[in-house]
Amino acid sequence: MSDLENKVVLTVATTGAWPSKNENPNVPLQPREIADEVYACWKAGASVAHIHVRDDEGKASMSYEKFVETLEYIRATDCKIVLNTTTSGGIGLTDEIRMKPFMGLRPEMASYDCGTMNWMHTTVFENSPKFLEKLGLAMQNCNVKPEIEIFDAGMIYNALYYLKQGVLKAPLHFQFCLGTPGGMAATVENLVFLKSLIPVGSTWSAFGVGKGHMPILYATLALGGHIRIGMEDNVYYSKGVLAESNVQFVLRAKRIIEEIGKSVATPDEARQILGV
Ligand code: ZN
What we know:
Blueprint: E1 7-8, E2 10-13, H1 31-44, E3 48-51, E4 53-54, E5 60-61, H2 64-75, E6 82-85, H3 95-105, E7 109-113, E8 117-119, E9 123-125, H4 129-142, E10 145-150, H5 153-165, E11 173-178, H6 188-197, E12 203-208, H7 213-222, E13 226-229, E14 236-238, E15 241-242, H8 246-259, E16 263-264, H9 267-274
Parallel strand pairs: 1-16, 2-3, 2-13, 3-6, 6-7, 7-10, 10-11, 11-12, 12-13
Antiparallel strand pairs: 4-5, 8-9, 14-15
Bound molecules: zinc ion (ZN).
């Protein structure tokens, strides 16, 4: 195991539910584009791909058909990346629609948003107790590892509750999502605090949206965490400069990880680290 200590799991979130071609024409939205982008990110060194799909108009969607198409394209190649599908590709969807992609397609991981929040000051991002119980148990049945997304500290306490109830199983894997309006700000202080709350033996990763992106990346590496990058979280590569592709983020993260004497985990190393 010791050689895994210096490995950093690099998750790329290529698409997300919200970025549009108006914000950045390079965001991949349709199955072929997403699959090609995931492939290129894997070639560039990414370990995990967190996947969202869009409808034909490019709007947020949990279309099962679009997930099928996207994963079929990826799985038809020699791409070994760990697949992580979202369960939160839109607002106001039924539990069944949100759960169908991982139940039907059995990626190795899927996101688990561990509480309800006011999203972007405009709407409610609902993850009710009933849904979280159902979701956690369904993930266990399908042998899909939950990526527990944390937008504020209370969500960690929800996860601890579900761990106690058997809805979630140790070791837990957390993703600290910082800097979204309605959630915790992307500051190093918040990151240190969140890390202090998770159970010993958990794995964790983090990202910051907007100007917190790079500070959170560096702080996460300094604290021994794993990294998420990509256009779901940042359509700008740097201040005022639109990202050309998700690969650009992968290559920058890889450079930084190597500068500090670590290396990016291969997908198989990520599987060992995350226990998937
Ligand atoms: Zn997502």
